[in-house]
Amino acid sequence: MQLEDGDPARRRGRQVNGEVSGTPQVGATGEPSLQDMPEPDDSGTEVMAESWEAEPALGDRDVTPRGATQQAGQREEALMAELSELVQKVVKSSSWWERHGVDISILLCSFLLLPAGFLCLRSAQAIPFLVGVLILGVVHHTLTVKGSHLASHNALTESKSWGKVWAIFFIELCSAFTAEQGIYNHVKIHHGYTNIIGMGDSSTWKVPFLNRYVYMFIAPLAVPIITPLVALDLLRNVKWKAALRTLCCMFLGLYCHYWLLLHISGFQSPWSALLCMLLTRSLLAHPYIHVNIFQHIGLPMFVAERKPKRIHLMSLGVLNLPRNILLDCSFGHSLISCHVEHHLFPSLSDNMCLKIKPIVSQYLKQKKLPYNEDTYASRLQLFLQRYEELMVHAPPITELVGIQ
Q1: Is residue 331 part of a domain?
Q2: Quick check: is 397 in a domain?
Q3: Upper half-sphere CA count for residue 246 (Cβ side, 13 Å)
Q4: Which residues form the Fatty acid desaturase domain (predicted)?
Q5: Can you spell out the DSSP letters for 176-189?
Q6: CA 46 → CA 36, 168, 266, 289, distances in Å?
Q7: What is the value of pTM for the model shown?
Q8: Domain count along the chain
Q9: Rounded CA separation 317/371 (Å)
């Protein structure tokens, strides 16, 4: 499942019933408790990402940071409401093309490139063959990362019914993962408990027994193999009908890729076709793993009993990377340069996150709130230098005194 922090290695997780409205309404503060979340087998295919109203970090209504006054808590809520109102004005004034059309067009163009990629692989010459690998690799990650991520948040359409269809298509057929578990892990846990120790702290990305170089540069090649294996394990948590649907979609997606390599690209042996599948499906696995750890791990971590309100939680615990044309197209703005905006307003599409970025950054800086930004190279160097501290040992808990 190609979702940020809803990755193939995520083994815990359950299902959530979420409702998505047409044009999101920003600023509601009602937050369900963890006990209210349904189990994975409660609703079958009716799992969908929640709207902005339901995605704030859970528990804010009951717990305020130690030493903070009631007035400070009300001020934080007012800040989020004010920012939400500014963003909502932009959303209401945006056309369907801006809200959904741009990202749908990118996904559609990716589909249209598939024939060229498979045909290039027929060539016996190195350059056309490598072009084919590049095309199929980029298209695969565009569909499985960008497509799955947008579908999990119902950001591709304003229809709940079509949203369910796209979630199954991108997450199960294209990504070989289970939609129920992927959406729950990403939307309910990671977004609901961003950087909360033991919950949404990105700990499922950690593999402590691997050294830094193996983890950062070799292990990502195994992502295409790990993904369906973990999905099969997670099927125990869903109803048998949903499990059967997922198995059929996973098999169909993988077999179609294999069949096309044999019959369109002209591979002579099953092993060469399988090797090519692995190569194309792992082409951007390194930045995929890197992006998911760079943007949260190493930033402030909290415990559920002493965490800030939503606007502080997301401004403190989320980081933006610079724009990159390859990663912008294949992963989407909300996972690269607009990750802060995405965590504040998760049901917006990639293009809308990019559109509200100046408003959000200016507002947070104006209110003297953190707005974390760093370069890919800088974060890579940081993780190589502090790998033991960040990826092996338990992260320190941030005290909240004075952040208000």
Answers
A1: yes
A2: no
A3: 29
A4: 129-373
A5: -S-HHHHHIIIIII
A6: 17, 10, 40, 29
A7: 0.83
A8: 1
A9: 10
